[in-house]
């Protein structure tokens, strides 16, 4: 794989503070998309809240994030963004009795689809050990894994959309089948996939190689938007993909 990083662009952290309403809306929407599921699941697990309470608390948190401009207090030199947001969630939930906000009530709020049923279904298939989750390190690890799941899930949706627009549906189908499916039994061989899709084995190799490159590019572009500094971006990218940039 190429180790080139995407060109520097204005991160969502900075764009969320922009005076340009369109730029600010784009940035807030991106942060909501990336973090609402991890926040919701974290509230359910860390604070043992039932689904309906967790839904309200999730919306309250993002309303507070906007209304109190919490992103302006974030210092990428001190922590990763997800660590900062997780601590903000803890503070928001602990003070929830004093809060009377809802994202859906906020003036000028950004609306994204919050599919809580899907989030609960994912959570039901996650093995959780309450005793192990009691430590701050375990809670950080849980939040990180859910953040990664959210980031990769959004990237897969982008890849599907891109492949549809570029008439490369076979590429993404092979990528999903070979790299993403978690079915019991051995993974199909390239020869198996070639027969199933009526293409040559070399095509399977080429299609998968292209899809993997595009997926990584999409993840890195989204990741850059979600980091507050170049240093944080490179650190997160190394953790996700296990390589160092040249």
Question: Would you kindly provide a written description of the structure presented here, covering whatever features stand out?
Answer:
By secondary structure, this protein is mainly alpha-helical. It has one domain. It has 10 helices and no strands. Helix 2 crosses helix 6, helix 3 packs across helix 4 and helix 6 packs across helix 9.
Give the helix/strand layout:
Elements: H1 12-15, H2 21-46, H3 51-67, H4 81-94, H5 116-124, H6 136-165, H7 169-180, H8 190-197, H9 201-225, H10 230-241
Roughly what is the average pLDDT, rounded to an integer?
A: 85
Estimate the global geometry from the Cα principal axes: globular
Work out the helix count: 10
Q: What's the domain count?
A: 1
Task: Give the DSSP E fraction (strand runs of 2 or more residues).
Answer: under 5%
- Main pleated sheet: none
C-alpha end-to-end distance: 12 Å
* Unreliable residue runs: 1-9, 99-108
- Helix coverage percent: 55-70%
SSE string, helices as H and strands as E? HHHHHHHHHH
Number of strands: 0
